[in-house]
């Protein structure tokens, strides 16, 4: 594989693999994300641990919050903790909280920050100048990584393909770069067949007897919609055993549940649940979306932002309570609310033309004003976490910023 792939990156993969091998045999905890890519990543890493002769603990989280990291690192000492499909930007925070108790690996494909540390190691293509959003899913990265440690891991190339498609890396018509490399291996080993549909490639996964997109949809339903019910566990199991009747049914039911919850929430907003400010329209779903993870409120905002009951010239802001309990970890010491922001299309245009402020400016500033921290902001889509009870203050700060910064 060295022939056509970034050599420097491969040396880095090898170096990290060497480091990990040294610690094998210790207690290992794998912390993974709850969508299809995160589930496939957790599955691949857990197989690696198994093939090295010990079992790993799996913890599925939605985001790397300090309070969550604290809880994870309190549980063990002198072991290995691997974060995957998340954590790229959190190395410093994790190192500080761990305080030398464990060896930590962060195997991620999101934007990352490197760290000089002798016990926290980041493996992320973004740090080698390779876009993790286009060319490498976390599943592909884990596949390449694990395969360098154990050749027999090539048996799971199909999971790299499912993870890549789950993160929409096939959006240009087919997967590219490192994802393509994993795909080629999967094809070569007869795990995957490529079918062309119009101008798009579709990947048929022999093991599941199903296309990658469909498998990814099921996994994301289990992990994200069924998050509080620990649906991701069934997802991980399905990665190696296939989907049994019950799991299939659950994945479908969860999708229906989401549709139903979204429908109910729309009714609630139409019934006066949508508060109108001068420049912002906002709502609070409290626990209405349970058992869905906190990604749901963002997806919901995206769905409704151009519906007729939403004012087209105002920013749209939604809040959802973050559950106090995290599966596998129990009570977390926090009282937090997830905020998601979206923009109706006409206002979107104004933002792109520089006639209105983008969420990438408004959300971090309004968060700061109430002591929160925004970590995922774009011009027309943003999310943040603030303390419960600060919602109205956040909206006021938001309105004030618009008043003060009118372009
Ligand atoms: Mn991912």
> Biggest sheet, strands in spatial order?
9-10-11-14-16-15
Helix proportion range: 40-55%
Number of domains: 2
- The SS-based structural class is alpha/beta
Beta-strand fraction estimate: 15-25%
Can you name the CATH architecture of the largest domain? Alpha-Beta Complex
Number of strands: 16
The hetero compounds bound to this protein are: manganese (II) ion
H/E element order: HEHEHEHEEHHHEEEHHHEEHEEEEHHEEH
Rg calculated over all Cα atoms: 21 Å
CATH names the topology of the largest domain as: inorganic pyrophosphatase (n-terminal core)
Roughly what is the average pLDDT, rounded to an integer? 94
Structural notes for this entry:
The protein contains 14 helices and 16 strands. By secondary structure, the chain is an alpha/beta fold. The protein folds into 2 domains: 207 residues, Alpha-Beta Complex (inorganic pyrophosphatase (n-terminal core)), CATH 3.90.1640.30; 131 residues, Diaminopimelate Epimerase, Chain A, domain 1 (Roll), CATH 3.10.310.40. The strands form 4 sheets. Strands 9-10-11-14-16-15 form a 6-stranded mixed sheet, with helices on both faces. The model has no long low-confidence stretch (mean pLDDT 94).
Break the fold down into its secondary structure elements and pairings.
Blueprint: H1 7-23, E1 28-32, H2 36-51, E2 57-60, H3 66-74, E3 80-84, H4 91-98, E4 103-107, E5 120-123, H5 138-149, H6 157-166, H7 177-188, E6 192-197, E7 200-205, E8 210-211, H8 212-225, H9 231-241, H10 245-273, E9 275-276, E10 280-284, H11 296-304, E11 315-321, E12 325-326, E13 330-331, E14 336-342, H12 345-352, H13 359-369, E15 373-377, E16 381-387, H14 391-404
Parallel strand pairs: 1-2, 1-3, 3-4, 4-5, 10-11
Antiparallel strand pairs: 6-7, 7-8, 9-10, 11-14, 12-13, 14-16, 15-16
Bound molecules: manganese (II) ion (MN).
């Amino acid at each position: 594989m060295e022939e056509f792939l970034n050599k420097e990156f491969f040396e880095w993969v090898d170096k990290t693999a060497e480091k990990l091998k040294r610690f094998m045999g210790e207690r290992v905890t794998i912390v993974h994300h709850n969508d299809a890519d995160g589930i496939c990543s957790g599955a691949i890493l857990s197989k690696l641990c198994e093939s090295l002769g010990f079992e790993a603990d799996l913890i599925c989280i939605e985001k790397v919050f300090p309070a969550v990291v604290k809880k994870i690192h309190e549980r063990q000492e002198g072991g290995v903790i691997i974060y995957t499909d998340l954590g790229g930007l959190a190395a410093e925070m994790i190192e500080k909280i761990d305080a030398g108790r464990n060896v930590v690996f962060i195997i991620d494909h999101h934007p990352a920050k490197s760290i000089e540390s002798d016990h926290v190691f980041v493996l992320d293509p973004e740090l080698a100048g390779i876009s993790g959003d286009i060319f490498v899913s976390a599943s592909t990265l884990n596949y390449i990584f694990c395969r360098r440690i154990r050749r027999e891991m090539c048996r799971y190339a199909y999971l790299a393909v499912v993870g890549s498609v789950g993160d929409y890396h096939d959006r240009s018509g087919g997967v590219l770069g490192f994802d393509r490399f994993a795909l080629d291996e999967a094809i070569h080993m007869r795990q995957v067949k490529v079918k062309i549909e119009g101008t798009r490639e579709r990947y048929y996964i022999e093991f599941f007897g199903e296309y990658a997109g469909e498998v990814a949809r099921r996994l994301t339903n289990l992990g994200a919609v069924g998050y509080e019910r620990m649906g991701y566990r069934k997802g991980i199991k399905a990665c190696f055993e296939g989907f049994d009747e019950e799991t299939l049914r659950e994945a479908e039911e969860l999708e229906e549940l989401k549709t139903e919850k979204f429908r109910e929430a729309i009714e609630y907003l139409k019934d006066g649940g949508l508060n109108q400010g001068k420049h912002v329209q906002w709502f609070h779903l409290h626990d209405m979306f349970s058992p869905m993870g906190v990604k749901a409120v963002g997806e919901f905002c995206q769905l409704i932002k151009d519906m007729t009951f939403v004012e087209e010239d105002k920013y749209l802001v939604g809040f959802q309570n973050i559950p106090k309990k995290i599966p596998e970890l129990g009570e977390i010491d926090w009282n937090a609310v997830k905020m998601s922001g979206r923009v109706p299309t006409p206002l979107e245009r104004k933002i792109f033309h520089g006639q209105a402020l983008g969420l990438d400016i408004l959300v971090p500033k309004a968060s700061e004003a109430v002591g929160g921290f925004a970590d995922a902001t774009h011009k027309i889509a943003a999310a943040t976490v603030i303390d419960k009870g600060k919602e109205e203050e956040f909206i006021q700060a938001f309105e004030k910023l618009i008043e003060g910064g009118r372009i």
